[in-house]
Amino acid sequence: MNIDQIKKEFPIFDNKVQNNDLVYLDSANSSQKPRIVIDRIYDFYSKEFSNVGRSVHYLAVAATNLYEQTRTSVQKYINASDKNEIVFTKGATEAINLVANTFGQKYLDEGDEVLITELEHHSNYVPWHFLRKSKKINIEFAEVNDQGEVTLEEIKKKITDRTKIICVTHLSNVTGAILPIKEIVNFAHSKGIPVLVDGCQGAPHLKLDMQDLDCDFYAISGHKMYGPTGIGVLYAKKKWLEDLPPYQGGGGMIREVKKKGISYGELPNKYEAGTMATAQVIAFNESIKFLEKIGIENIEKHEKELLDYAVELLGKNNSVNIIGNPKNKGGVISFTIEGIHPHDIATILDEDGVAIRAGHHCCQILHEKLGLPATARASFGVYNTKDDIDQLNKSINNCKKIFNLK
Amino acid sequence: MNLKELYQEIILEHGKNPRNLRKTDNFTRDAKGNNPLCGDNVHIYLKLNDNNKVEDISFEGNGCAITMASASIMTDLVRGKEEKEVKEIVTDFLDMIKEKDELNTQLLSEDEKTKLMCLSGVKQYPMRVKCATLSWHTLTSAMNNSKEIASTED
Could you report the predicted ipTM of this complex, rounded to two decimals? Predict the structure, then answer.
């Protein structure tokens, strides 16, 4: 795998950022886009645009076919057993809201428990929180250990006879911990409990096989997978999509509408009300092709090398404290520097063209547990190199210099 | 764009050793403020005497060097001022951060103004302006004895 060659496929790196080469270490937030994805949006709007699934004219049929091709590509990419198990959403957030809303409506009652973890992003907590009010449910938290992981044993401990669904992240966007999803699903199913996986950080970095993982729901964010913003995927087992009520009402999701009653459309239309992010869905197919061309195994290997290199280099840097030390870790390093607030770190790094994130990374529960209001975070993508990490370390040293630290 | 302008010695020093970082005994007014985007938060405690003068002012909270330095410098400058004067200083500071090149108030000495102007470096960093203004918005809330949490988001 030639990273220099791959990096050339991303136009963003052709330009200087404040007179510096861009060192982009914020891919857990959103990844950069390869040229084929950007061009696909332009080409679709320039030459092929039409709304999908409604009209019978040539452009509408062609656009519908393209749109459905992405569905098939996603199905194959994540090895789902049926293409109708792929629902397009505006993002992973909407995917989780869809499940919380529909599953909550049908299966949750007063006193029922939803088990999540302390690692969860707000998008896998807040949608469930709504049900505390509307359905008087309880939310239980599986706790994070000193290494920044949530173990199977901890999940087991928190399951009760009121647990109705377990919602866990695949890969923590703060500590990088990769959770033992297959084992969690296995155990949960033995108790008859379905599992939702927040795959925002899993999908861009790990090989996915829905039939092997066997989870009930898996939420994917397109823009973290080198795809456009405004597009996400909810994978759900067909039995759930057939069983649960519709989410949003509108055009496209109905079969028949009468004054006295409405019947809903078949899958996948049932969950895709209104005009979808057509161009983004079609361009997302190019992201999948891009990932397939490189091979997710190669990406995993590359990012692991970067991670090991960064952990070693930053580990040697005085006053840098890396948050968590999970055995199984993805390409995310959250850190603090004694005496410098993460926002100050981010501003100073930015001056060198080093883009990181600072704050709570939408994980306030975890930060409260860590006793830290904020952390700085460097996260990797396929285009990152060891040079980027050297620059990160150099810029961290510059922070220390400005703040008169040794 | 110059980091040295943003992180002047005086900012670093106040950021590291903030003045008035405590809770005033028998405070008469207080308010909380936060910056929802970055999670910085401050709680301002104010004690006005019978003449409506600031007898004591203090704050609790945490945030970046800019947030802490701004709260530190602010609390130092408004002690002893009358309520009306505090409001004038707050308005003058916020106008300066927003658009004006300098401070116009006659209520501060040149030395005090110079200290405050050290915070003007944030103007070149739009994302950091809120760090400098958080404690000032919160002070306004405290003066109004507002129960609402002051926010840097309008």
Answer: 0.88
Q: Which domain holds residue A309?
A: 3-30+295-402
- Kindly indicate the confidence band of residue A399, based on its pLDDT and cuts at 50, 70 and 90: very high
Asked if residue A331 has pLDDT above 60, the reply is yes
Specify whether A362 is catalytic: yes
Contact A360/A368 with Cβ under 8 angstroms? no
Q: Are residues A218 and A318 in the same domain?
A: no
Chain A CB contacts of B16 under 8 Å are 339
Determine the pLDDT at residue A386. 97
Q: Please give the share of chain A, as a percent, with pLDDT higher than 90.
A: 96
Is the CB of residue B131 less than 8 Å away from at least one CB of chain A? yes
CA–CA min distance B7, chain A (Å): 8
Chosen domain end from A254, A272, A292? A292
Q: Which fold has domain B3-143?
A: Sufe protein. Chain: A (3.90.1010)
Q: Give the closest of B1, B37, B64 to A344, CB-based.
A: B64
Q: What is the dihedral of CA B126, A365, A224, B64, to 10 degrees?
A: 20
> Which residue do the tokens 């990160």 mark?
A392
What is the distance between the alpha carbons of residues B65 and B67, in angstroms, rounded to a whole number? 6
Sequence-distant (6+) residues with CB within 8 A of A9 are A34, A35, A36, A290
Within this chain, do residues A102 and A223 fall inside the same structural domain, yes or no?
A: yes
Looking at the fold, whether A250 and A278 belong to one and the same domain comes out as yes
pLDDT digits (tens, 9 = 90+) for A252-300: 999 999 999 999 999 999 999 999 999 999 999 999 999 999 999 999 9
Instruction: Convert the pLDDT of each residue in A193-236 to its tens digit.
Output: 999 999 999 999 999 999 999 999 999 999 999 999 999 999 99
Distance CA B54, CA B43 (A): 16
Nearest CA in chain B to A341: B64
Same domain, A190 and A70: yes
Number of domains in chain A: 2
Name the burial class of residue B18, with classes exposed (0-12), middle (13-18) and buried (19+) by CB atoms within 10 angstroms of its CB. Answer: buried
CB-nearest partner of B63 from A18, A341, A404: A341
- pTM, 2 dp: 0.94
Averaged confidence pLDDT in chain A:
96
Judge whether B6 is closer than 8 Å to chain A, CB to CB.
yes
Q: What is the CATH number of the domain that holds A349?
A: 3.90.1150.10
Residue B1, chain A, CB below 8 Å: the answer is yes
Could you tell me if A240 and A309 lie in one domain? no
